[in-house]
Design a protein that fits this description.
Blueprint lengths: L2 H15 L10 H13 L3 H11 L9 H16 L7 H5 L8 H12 L5 H20 L3 H14 L5 H10 L3 H15 L17 H13 L7 E3 L6 E3 L2 H13 L8 H13 L5
Antiparallel strand pairs: 1-2
Helix pairs in contact: 1-2, 1-3, 7-8, 7-9
């Protein structure tokens, strides 16, 4: 993890979870890259809260223009009206799975009004985070939300029921990966994540770095188009397809029952962009 990535996670931990962190010295150019990374991941508000907590530290040196840009950006974000989910986010919504058998089980869980609402919400957060990992890379915003739910709602969540649901949906390994990422990136203690078995995963640092690098440089989603002058179908981004195949294979052990159906659902979703 490079210095920009280390600093952004330190600022997120400060801003979202009120930890004490020592910021590493960076040039104005690298602070500009950190700003861009915060915007890409949609975590600018949490990073800005961290900047406010650390602004008196000797090594936090940004130009006056950079501080002004942060303040303007945060004001714009806070004043912006809530936006409707974009099409790609709609595809990643957590209340449906692409595996029809598992999706049927999930709908039964969600339709059971006798179960605890907060526990169901945490399950949906785990599923949404997992689907982002499969399709988008490291979901920092969703990890922050998951961490906040665990910190603020843990006393009200039925973890025994949650564990039973995760087993039924074969999402134990996905939950393990998310818990390990909370420990590795957001400073959680293993004891705080009581709904999974936190055995050591020697590959988790490598997985975290791969997900960070993929999200930092991820290509646009691939879509298929058909030209006006021929009958052949083309993809706008061949590397995105290959990357999706490699990612599906690499993380299959964490999402065994959802990976294949997710890949084909993504493929079909992309085909839907062909103009009639």
């Amino acid at each position: 993890m490079d210095i920009i990535q280390r600093n952004i996670f330190k600022l997120i931990r400060c801003g979202a979870f009120n930890t004490k962190e020592q910021i590493e010295p960076m040039s104005a150019f690298k602070w500009a890259k950190l700003f861009q990374l915060a915007i890409i991941h949609d975590v600018a508000c949490d990073v800005y809260e961290g900047l406010q907590q650390c602004k008196d530290q000797f090594f936090l040196r940004m130009t006056e223009a950079q501080w002004e840009l942060w303040e303007k950006t945060i004001n714009d974000i806070r004043q912006a009206p809530p936006s409707e989910d974009q099409e790609e986010n709609e595809f990643l919504k957590a209340d449906h799975l692409t595996n029809p058998i598992l999706n049927h089980k999930l709908q039964n869980i969600l339709d059971d009004e006798s179960s605890d609402t907060r526990t169901r919400q945490l399950l949906l957060t785990i599923i949404r985070t997992a689907r982002h990992i499969l399709n988008e890379g490291l979901p920092i915003k969703e990890l922050i939300l998951l961490g906040k739910e665990l910190r603020h709602e843990s006393n009200r969540i039925d973890f025994n029921t949650l564990e039973k649901w995760l087993r039924s949906l074969t999402f134990q390994q996905a939950a393990h990966l998310e818990g390990a990422l909370l420990v590795e990136l957001l400073g959680f203690e293993k004891e705080e994540i009581s709904f999974i078995s936190m055995t050591d995963d020697s590959h988790i640092k490598q997985v975290a770095q791969e997900l960070i690098e993929f999200t930092h440089s991820r290509p646009k989603n691939y879509y298929f188009t058909q030209g006006d002058d021929n009958i052949f179908i083309h993809t706008n981004n061949g590397s995105a397809i290959l990357g999706h195949v490699r990612r599906s294979a690499r993380y299959f052990r964490y999402f065994p029952s959802e990976t294949l159906t997710n890949f084909f659902a993504t493929f079909a979703h992309s085909l839907s962009h062909i103009e009639e």
